[in-house]
Specification:
The protein is of the alpha/beta class. It has helices at 14-28, 43-53, 67-77, 110-122, 131-147, 156-161, 200-216, 252-257, 280-287, 296-299, 315-327, 329-346, 353-364; strands spanning 2-7, 33-38, 57-61, 82-86, 150-153, 167-169, 189-195, 220-226, 240-243, 263-266, 291-295, 310-312. Helix content is 41%, strand content 16%. The strands form two sheets. Strands 2-1-3-4-5-6 form a six-stranded parallel β-sheet, with helices on both faces. A six-stranded parallel β-sheet has the order 9-8-7-10-11-12, sandwiched between helices.
Length: 367
């Protein structure tokens, strides 16, 4: 039995989704794997579990700065253990430390971080972050990556950026045991956008166009899934639903599936940080039969435009295309069905599940 230990972190981003799809998939498929979860803020529990279960692998995605101490402890005191990290995002040195939309901060200051983000949003970015602190935290994250025995990434571009001893590509896929594609028809067009702290610049560029379309079409509802407070000036507030990604944990997949979205927005501003994003968000939309409406800059290579998704060039193009597919339900639903089938045929988690197990086993046996 292969024993893995992993912090029970919140599912609040695509990297976390990759992690939970992998671990849940291995357990459900009957692979000889035991996953031991611990509370990341309870150090005593972590050390107790190390002693009691003697796990062979520490596995985490986008680990927080607080995990560095645990990884260093493993390296110093548990020579038989291996560390595997799974990243779906930009390397830390690509984060823009002077921009409040992309600045990292220490966990102990998370409350202050959220407060600064909120103030910056409502004051035209007049409130800036402590750039030097953010640079130090970026350095800690890079250090954590250097300590990994194996790093998993979904794209060749991310692999090329990594400086780890061993980096393996496992592409993004969808575990259909976790996502439910059931939809119920309504006369309302439900438009969803999942975004967090790192997408504040994206929100700023698109929000006026989005609000304009929502006000123009009274048969719409906007579903905002975000872990920060975003300004909703000029939005039809009575037709806005708000969900917080923080603390959802395993219930993320069930709740996401039941949003009953008709259109899913995937937009990223054109900058270096966003250029390292991957395609998992549009795959998630496809998995629940929502039509992906995505920026061409990043997602164009993954979408056959107007067939299994729709791409747009800028905020003006977004406004026109969103309005068009609100009005044209038949085309919208055909594209959503095609998006679902595309994910089912080409991005099915069953195809990569053995790769995870083989990598875990090979890494554990490399002791």
């Amino acid at each position: 039995m292969l024993r893995l230990i992993s912090p029970k972190t919140n599912v609040n981003g695509v990297s976390f989704n990759r992690k939970y799809q992998a671990l849940r998939g291995l357990e459900k498929a009957g692979f000889p794997v035991q996953v031991i979860y611990y509370n990341p803020i309870d150090d005593d529990e972590f050390y107790m579990l190390l002693k009691e279960f003697k796990p062979q692998i520490y596995f985490e995605c986008s680990p927080s700065a607080s995990e560095i101490t645990k990884i260093k402890f493993i390296k110093e005191h548990c020579p038989e253990m291996r560390v595997i990290l799974d990243f779906d995002d930009a390397p830390a040195d690509k984060v823009l430390p002077s921009n409040p939309a992309y600045a990292y901060c220490g966990e102990a200051e998370a409350g202050e971080w959220k407060d600064r983000v909120t103030k910056a949003l409502f004051s035209g970015y007049e409130v800036m972050f402590d750039v030097e602190r953010n640079k130090r935290n970026n350095a800690r994250i890079l250090e954590m990556k250097s300590l990994a025995d194996v790093t998993i990434v979904p794209t060749q571009r991310l692999k090329d950026e990594m400086k780890n001893k061993k980096t393996v590509i496992i592409p993004n896929t969808i575990n259909f045991d976790l996502y439910d594609a059931y939809k119920f028809d309504t006369d309302t067009v439900r438009i969803g956008w999942v975004l967090g702290f790192s997408h504040i610049a994206d929100w700023t560029e698109l929000k006026d166009s989005l609000a304009s379309v929502l006000n123009e079409h009274e048969n719409t509802e906007f579903i905002l899934w975000s872990n920060t407070i975003l300004p909703l000036d000029n939005f039809p507030i009575d037709r806005v639903e708000k969900y917080d990604t923080i603390g959802v944990l395993d219930g993320y997949f069930n709740l996401f599936s039941n949003l009953n979205l008709d259109i899913g927005i995937a937009y990223v501003a054109d900058n270096e940080f966003n250029s390292f994003k991957s395609n998992l968000k549009i795959l998630e939309y496809g998995a629940i039969k929502a039509m992906p409406l995505a920026s061409k800059k990043l997602y164009g290579e993954y979408i056959d435009d107007t067939v299994n998704g729709v791409v747009y060039a800028d905020a003006t193009d977004f406004r026109h295309k969103l309005s068009y597919y609100i009005r044209n339900a038949k085309e919208r639903r055909e594209i959503a069905e095609n998006a679902f089938q595309n994910v089912k045929d080409n991005y099915n988690f069953e195809d990569v599940l053995p790769k995870y197990f083989e990598l875990f086993l090979e890494t554990a046996e490399s002791v």
